[in-house]
Structures are given as structure tokens and as C-alpha cells.
Write a structure and sequence with these properties.
By secondary structure, this protein is mostly helical. It has one domain (9-116). Helix content is 67%, strand content 0%. The protein is built from five helices and no strands. The chain has helices at residues 9-30, 36-50, 56-77, 83-87, 101-116. Helix 1 (9-30) crosses helix 2 (36-50), helix 1 packs across helix 3 (56-77) and helix 1 (9-30) crosses helix 5. The longest helix has 22 residues, at 9-30. The radius of gyration is 13 Å and the shape is globular.
Length: 120
């Protein structure tokens, strides 16, 4: 049975923040951004772990925006985005750790981005 389409604005922002953080972690650990395959896998992992349901178009839109936002945040957050701070974005269960100030900044940026773009 498939999940209903149940991602509200805040859930979409959290998924987007998770994808952005995943991109930043990959970039700091390997020097490369996530591949398309890894973005799809990360999206499906997040949806499964959070009981989220979304259609293909919404997943594609969020995935495409994640890479652009990650590149933007890498430039604008500068020294706040270090390997140590990026590793601290995730809990041991691979969920975003909102105790991290950088995780909160990423989430807020994603929420604002989606709100401004009218993606609700």
C-alpha cells in the first residue's frame, strides 16, 4: 500500500533540508555532490523513515532545489560549514539533528525558500 500524499509545507522543508544536508556531507567527505542515484535513495529513505508520501513531481522538484540550495549555503555560510559541523547535522539514526545550529539554519532557509517560491 502506498503512502498518501501527505507532505505539508513544513514536511517538504524538512525533506529539502535533509537533502541539502546530505549534499553538504557528501561534498565535505568526498569533494563531490551527491549523485542523482544517491539523491533518489536519500529521498526514499527519508520518506520511509518519516511515513511521508509525495508524488514524483514533488520529489523531483525538491531534489533539484536541494543541490542548488546546498551550493548556495556552502558559499553563504562559509566557515560555519566545516566537516565537523556537517557531520553534526545528523543523529545516529540518520535524521537531521535540530540541536545543531547549522541544521536549524538549513531548515529555516529551506522553509523560507519554499514559502517564497509558493511551493505549498
Amino acid at each position: 500500500m502506498s503512502n498518501p500524499l501527505n507532505l505539508d509545507l513544513r514536511a517538504r522543508a524538512e525533506l529539502l533540508a535533509y537533502l541539502v544536508a546530505s549534499h553538504l556531507l557528501a561534498r565535505h567527505m568526498t569533494g563531490e555532490w551527491l549523485s542523482v542515484e544517491h539523491v533518489v535513495e536519500s529521498t526514499m529513505l527519508w520518506l520511509s523513515a518519516n511515513g511521508g508520501g509525495t508524488d514524483v513531481m514533488q520529489r523531483v522538484m525538491l531534489s533539484a532545489r536541494a543541490h542548488n540550495i546546498a551550493r548556495h549555503l556552502e558559499r553563504t555560510l562559509g566557515s560555519a560549514v566545516t566537516l565537523k559541523s556537517v557531520k553534526a547535522l545528523f543523529c545516529e539514526n540518520l535524521r537531521l539533528d535540530f540541536r545543531s545550529p547549522v541544521a536549524r539554519q538549513i531548515y529555516q532557509h529551506c522553509l523560507t525558500h519554499l514559502s517564497d517560491a509558493g511551493c505549498w
